[in-house]
Amino acid sequence: MSAPAPSPLAIVDAEPLERQGEVLTDSALAFLAELHHRFTPRRDELLARRAERRAEIARTGTLDFLPQTAPIREDPDWRVAPAPAALDDRRVEITGPTDRKMTINALNSGARVWLADFEDASAPTWENVVLGQLNLIDAYERRIDFTTPEGKAYALRPAEELATVVARPRGWHLDERHLRAGDRAVPGALVDFGLYFFHNARRLLDQGKGPYFYLPKTESHLEARLWNDIFVFAQDHLGIPQGTIRATVLIETITAAYEMEEILYELRDHASGLNAGRWDYFFSIVKNFRDAGPDFVLPDRNAVTMTAPFMRAYTELLVRTCHKRGAHAIGGMAAFIPSRRDPEVNAVAFDKVRADKDREANDGFDGSWVAHPDLVPVARASFDAVLGDRPNQKDRLREDVRVTAPELIDIASLDAKPTSAGLRNAVQVGIRYIEAWLRGLGAVAIFNLMEDAATAEISRSQIWQWINAGVVFENGEKATAPLVRAIAAEELAAVREEIGAEAFAAGNWQQAHDLLLKVALDEDYAEFLTLPAYELLR
After folding, report:
1. Which residue has the higher pLDDT, 336 or 36?
2. Which residue is catalytic, options 90, 359, 452, 460?
3. Which member of 276, 289, 475, 529 has the lowest number of beta carbons within 10 Å of its beta carbon?
């Protein structure tokens, strides 16, 4: 007897939300099911390849450029498709989740691009997944507004003043448990991409733009090839001209840093650029080289600046690669959150942001990220000073840059060492972020910085690495599990004192504490903390 045919629709398994029928139409669910049946098996194979490559790194303790793709790197002639007008000038990009207030504020921010985030800045509650899509539809239809409980009203500015949206779906490792096709959950990446593309591709074409995407946590050119095949199918399926989709790939894994040209090549008809993602890049280095010995022990995360030799190698290679192939090079995040109560803190932070953006603009980047609207003018001034009226500086080929494979992983060149204060900060930030994530918040202001899931990943990974490497801090204390447990208990008590017993009891503090200790102290290192965290998400 033959197996039953797969359902033509993805099946929703969740309590209904108001207006969800506008997003989860039968035709949209059929599109998701088709994406799932065609592409999830290849996703599974690529996740298995990730594990194989990690095992190889553990065995060899090194990485190199791929010999089998050398012809692609050595071919001087190929280029990515020319940028569409809406993505030609990307000098300032703002990032944030797709809740209703952020949607309006980001579009109104004065930035050229808004990274509308379904990934690290958004906890994947069903409400966030579905209503985030609805908010973008409402924004394109200009029927979105928002009023705070205090009565402050938000509405969109005229269309010509709004940022161009570049949506970021979830990474390949995350499934969406509320949508199933056949006997399996649909990958979150296909849900986020599929719903956004299905509902908005034609709307955006009518506005003279297109469906643009950021692709997160890519680890190889084969993963970029999968995305390209998805784009080709999706455009054909909906009758959208090929090349309408454009994708910017985040080079935020250490393995992808060795395949930048190959990634652009695989996506060349749909490629828009590459981005330098700092925290996830640190996380990826620790994850892949976590047991490779003292030469790979990273110091406190805030001590690793973009001027560190291995970070300079990474960012300069990214600019050279992008401009060699006609793509945009987009710089990293300015995560500072201005304080209305402390102008001195603001002044110091603004100086740091300005210096960081000046460096990026002078290095050849075509734009950069900020996390708060107040930083848009700061970043814009840095790029205005270099670009003037030009939309970008892709003509700066940076042929002076020569980066070798060892330079990208030369962690040992850092002078800084892990500190006891860094350990405490990792515990504090990890607990505070995870607690908010479990309440459905993915972008969280902690100690005047806008943190997302990448922050928690680097925090727990560094705790794991320091313990397993036997790090001894400047005060003579050794990184151990009992020390981390003691600091976590102190932090939990401090939070209870800070917010009061009632608010503490209403939160997810004990769950956050327990989860951080699990992913930081378990002998078996969890590939992503969001996987066990998702099981706890209401």
Report:
1. 36
2. 452
3. 475
Q: Residue type for 10, please? A: A
Checking if the pLDDT of 7 tops 80, the result is no
Q: How far is CA 57 from CA 162, 262, 282, 479, in A?
A: 44, 20, 16, 25
CA 113 from chain centre, in angstroms, equals 15
Comparing CA positions, the residue from 58, 68, 61 lying closest to residue 409 is: 61
What pLDDT score was predicted for residue 6? 60
Q: Which of 54, 168, 325, 359 is catalytic?
A: 168
Q: Is 342 a catalytic residue?
A: no
pLDDT at residue 348, rounded to an integer:
85
Instruction: Give the C-alpha separation, 216 to 243, whole Å.
Output: 20
Amino acid present at 454: A
Asked if 169 and 119 count as a contact pair (C-beta separation under 8 A), the reply is yes
The number of helix segments (H) and strand segments (E) in the chain equals 18, 15
Which pTM was predicted?
0.96
CB contact set of 2 (below 8 Å; sequence gap of 6+)? none
More confident site: 530 or 343: 530
Query: What confidence score (pLDDT) does residue 472 get?
Result: 98
CA atoms within 13 A on the CB side of 455: 26
How would you classify the pairing of strands 271-276 and 328-334? parallel
